[in-house]
Specification:
The protein is α/β, with parallel strands linked by helices. It contains 4 helices and 7 strands. The strands form 3 sheets. Strands 1-2-3 form a 3-stranded mixed β-sheet, with no helix packed on it. Helix 3 links the parallel strand 5 and strand 6.
Length: 132
């Protein structure tokens, strides 16, 4: 993060005395070579990377060992479909984040997991179909 040249902003907020809590944090000035851009961070942390073209955004998003989820924000439906087809992530949200249809399968790519949960794909590993 900061040691590699990124700028950090942390929201001033009280944290519980017990447990392992981390304040909401935003890093700007992040490049692909920074650890915070290439490691999976679970917590209220956002690393902001810039891009000039949709293809550059896809290249940066796919240049990671992880692939749990991705989000596309645009007013063009055709761009959403174009990008979703090229992003290597288990879920690609369009103009929203963290909304699930319980009938849809969910799972990651690469080091973010394998297989699917939910939907028919998730149920298939628990079923053994037999002929009547």
């Amino acid at each position: 993060g900061v040691d590699e040249g990124a700028d950090m902003y942390q929201a001033p907020c009280e944290l519980p005395a017990q447990g392992f809590w981390f304040p909401p944090t935003v890093f700007t000035g992040v490049s692909q070579s920074h650890r915070i851009a290439s490691e999976e961070i679970f917590g209220p942390v956002l690393s902001v990377l810039t891009f000039r073209t949709p293809q550059e955004a896809i290249d940066k998003a796919n240049n990671t060992p992880y692939g749990l989820s991705a989000g596309v924000w645009t007013e063009k439906g055709s761009r959403i479909l174009w990008m979703a087809d090229r992003l290597r992530a288990g879920v690609v949200w369009a103009n929203t984040f963290n909304r699930f249809d319980p009938a849809s399968a969910f799972g990651g790519y690469k080091e973010s997991g394998f297989g699917r949960e939910g939907g028919p794909q998730g149920l298939s590993s628990y079923l053994r179909l037999t002929e009547p």
